[in-house]
Write a structure and sequence with these properties.
By secondary structure, this protein is mainly β. The chain is built from no helices and five strands. Strand 3 and strand 4 form a beta hairpin.
């Protein structure tokens, strides 16, 4: 997951999607875990253009964020 700002781009977490993934059925891959409280349950690859990220969480405390 990347948050874009006008002056920079920051990566808060990522998940690997296997090259040999068997489309078109949905497949669960790893959960998101990252800085600033980024987390989720296992990400579901629904199809080549759709990711479902259940129970996504982010604490909103990254530098440059406003409340």
């Amino acid at each position: 997951m990347t948050k874009k700002r006008a002056d920079r781009q920051v990566n808060f977490g990522d998940v690997s999607i296997p090259r040999e993934l068997d489309y078109p059925r949905p497949v669960k891959v790893g959960a998101l875990r990252g800085v600033h409280g980024v987390s989720s349950d296992a990400v579901i690859v629904v199809d080549a253009q759709t990711l479902l990220v259940p129970n996504f969480s982010y604490d909103g405390e990254a530098p440059g964020t406003s409340h």
